[in-house]
């Protein structure tokens, strides 16, 4: 197992990219510190900085981590997950739900006011 102390954190943070394991859709990216990464490994549920709890604790839209990969520079991690509900706090399956024209191209899976 790779020692998390050997990862290249910037200001104590590393980028975590979240991808649906089955569909390969990129769902989100967020910063992780070493503690969040360790909690993710320990619990099997994605944890991120800025959230003192696991992703989806309030909404119930969890990310069950099936595999973690580390890039060649050791400065980012890829979480392959089983997404329960939506990844985006705006109610979409993916945070990447708009194109450059601002057109909504993603699937809305819940109404934020119903879960937050």
From TrEMBL:
UniProt GO MF annotations: phosphoribosyl-AMP cyclohydrolase activity; phosphoribosyl-ATP diphosphatase activity
Pathway listed: Amino-acid biosynthesis; L-histidine biosynthesis; L-histidine from 5-phospho-alpha-D-ribose 1-diphosphate: step 3/9
Keyword annotations from UniProtKB, A to Z: Amino-acid biosynthesis, Cytoplasm, Histidine biosynthesis, Hydrolase
Pfam family, one: PRA-CH
Reactions mediated catalytically: 1-(5-phospho-beta-D-ribosyl)-5'-AMP + H2O = 1-(5-phospho-beta-D-ribosyl)-5-[(5-phospho-beta-D-ribosylamino)methylideneamino]imidazole-4-carboxamide
Residue ranges of domain Phosphoribosyl-AMP cyclohydrolase in the record: 28-97
EC number: 3.5.4.19
UniProt-listed NCBIfam families: PRK00051.1 (NF000768)
Protein name: phosphoribosyl-AMP cyclohydrolase
Lineage: Archaea, Methanobacteriati, Methanobacteriota, Stenosarchaea group, Methanomicrobia
């Amino acid at each position: 197992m790779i020692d998390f102390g050997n990862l290249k954190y910037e200001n104590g943070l590393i980028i975590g990219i979240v991808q649906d394991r089955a569909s390969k859709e990129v769902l989100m990216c967020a910063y992780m510190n070493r503690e969040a990464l360790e909690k993710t490994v320990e619990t099997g549920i994605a944890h991120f900085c800025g959230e003192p709890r696991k992703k989806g604790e309030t909404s119930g839209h969890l990310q069950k981590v099936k595999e973690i990969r580390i890039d060649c520079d050791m400065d980012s991690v890829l979480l392959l997950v089983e997404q329960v509900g939506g990844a985006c706090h705006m109610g979409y399956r993916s945070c990447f739900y708009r194109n450059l024209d601002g057109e909504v191209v993603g699937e809305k899976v819940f109404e934020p006011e119903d879960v937050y």
